[in-house]
Amino acid sequence: MKKIIHKSETRGEANYGWLKSYHTFSFAGYQNPERMNFGMLRVLNDDVVQPKMGFGTHPHKNMEIISIPVFGALSHKDSMGNKRSIEVGEVQVMSAGTGLTHSEFNDSKTDAVNFLQLWILPETENVTPNYEQKLFLEAERKNKFQVLVSPKDKQIEGSLPIHQQAYISMIDLEPNFETEYELKNGAYFFLIEGEIFVADVTIEKRDAIGITETNKVVIKATKESKLLVVDVPMM
Hints:
This protein is mainly β. About 0% of the residues lie in helices and about 55% in strands. Strand 2 (about 10-15) and strand 3 (about 20-25) form a beta hairpin. It starts with a strand and ends with a strand. The model has no long low-confidence stretch (mean pLDDT about 95). One of its GO terms (molecular function) is metal ion binding. Keywords: Iron, Metal-binding. InterPro entries: Pirin, Pirin_N_dom, Quercetinase_C, RmlC-like_jellyroll, RmlC_Cupin_sf.
C-alpha cells in the first residue's frame, strides 16, 4: 500500500473577499509542483462564496467538472441553456468536451454558500458537452457508500456519468462504525466533516489521504463523519 497525506492546513488558500477558496492541488495563484494532481483528479477546490456574489461567465474545455454543495445553494447558468440552482444533497456534473461557458452565483442576500468542485481529466477528449444534476437521498448513504458519479460506459444505476473510469462516492458514518472500501483504481479520501481512522492514519475535517497499490482499506469513524471518496485511474 502506498499513501499520501494532505492535511487541511497544507492546502493553497486564496481570499478575494467575496470568495475564499482552498486548493488541494495547484490552481490559479497556488502553484506547487508536488501538488499537481492525484492520478486523473486534477482539481479539488473548497469554495465559500459570499451572498450576492459569484463567478462570471467563463469557459471550460475537455474536463469533467463535478460540483457538490456543502451548505447553501449555488445558481448555475451555461451555454447549453441550463439554468438551475444546485442545493445541498445535489450533485452537478458537466462534461466540458469541445467547449462550453457557464457562470455560478450565490443568489442569497444573507447566507454564504460552500461547495466542493472537482475536475477530472477525461478519458476521451472533444466529446459533445453535457450537463446533469441529481438529488441524492441522505438516508441512502448512512454507513454505506453511495455512488454519485461513475464512468459513462459502465454507469452504476442512479449515479451521474462522466467520460473517465472514475467513481465518486459519499458515506455518512456514525461514531465507531467500521467499514471497508474496495478500490477500483487509486482512491482519494477527502473528509468533509468529522474524524476517521484509515490506513493507520487519523484524518480530521478537510484532511485527505490518497491510497494506491492495495485492493481495499478499512475505515473507522471516531466521530460522526462525512467522507468523499474519489476513485480515479492513476494515469
